[in-house]
């Protein structure tokens, strides 16, 4: 007797499928950040439970197959990059170092 595979429907999977279906319907360009650090630019054409098809244009005849477990983040292509700015020494406030006595001995 064969066991029937049962897949648990998690809220995170529904959210992932909702996000991917939104990208597929809108056909807006996205940036797919892979776990290895590679960034892929294109349009999401289709997806299933294991893979995503990413094409350069919606009419591209040969889209790339990307496994979902390799994807770290999918962001819109027009999203601004986060710029890390280090405040200068002149704008940082002066901090007074406080002495905190030890209340218990180290072992």
Report what the structure shows:
The chain has one helix spanning 11-26; strands at residues 30-34, 39-47, 51-55, 64-67, 71-76. It is an alpha+beta fold and 107 residues long. The chain has a domain at 31-78: Roll (SH3 type barrels). A hairpin with a 4-residue loop joins strand 1 and strand 2 (39-47). The longest helix is centred in the N-terminal third of the chain and has 16 residues, at 11-26.
Name a few traits of the molecule.
extended, alpha+beta, 107 residues, five-stranded antiparallel beta sheet, 5 strands, 1 helix, SH3 type barrels
- Averaged pLDDT, please? 81
Give the helix proportion (percent range): 10-25%
Which class best fits the helix and strand makeup? alpha+beta
Please give the CATH architecture of one domain. Roll
* DSSP strand count: 5
The CATH topology of one domain is: SH3 type barrels
**What string gives the helices and strands in order?**
HEEEEE
Q: What would the principal axes of the Cα set say about the shape? A: extended
What is the rounded Rg? 23 Å
Percent of sequence in beta strands: 25-35%
Distance between the termini: 60 Å
Strand order of the largest sheet: 4-3-2-1-5
Q: Which sheet architecture does the biggest sheet show?
A: 5 strands, antiparallel
What's the total helix number?
Answer: 1
CATH class of one domain: Mainly Beta
Uncertain runs with pLDDT below 50, 5 residues or more?
none
Organism: Cupriavidus basilensis
Keywords: RNA-binding, Stress response
InterPro entries: Hfq, LSM_dom_sf
Protein name: RNA chaperone Hfq
């Amino acid at each position: 007797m064969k066991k029937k595979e049962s897949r648990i429907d998690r809220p995170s999977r529904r959210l992932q499928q909702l996000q991917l279906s939104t990208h597929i319907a809108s056909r807006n360009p996205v940036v797919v950040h892979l776990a290895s650090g590679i960034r892929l630019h294109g349009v999401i054409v289709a997806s299933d439970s294991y893979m995503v098809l990413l094409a350069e244009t919606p009419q591209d005849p040969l889209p790339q197959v990307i496994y979902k477990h390799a994807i770290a983040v999918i962001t819109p292509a027009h999203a601004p990059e986060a710029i890390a700015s280090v405040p200068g020494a002149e704008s940082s406030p002066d901090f007074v170092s406080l002495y905190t006595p030890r209340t218990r001995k180290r072992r």
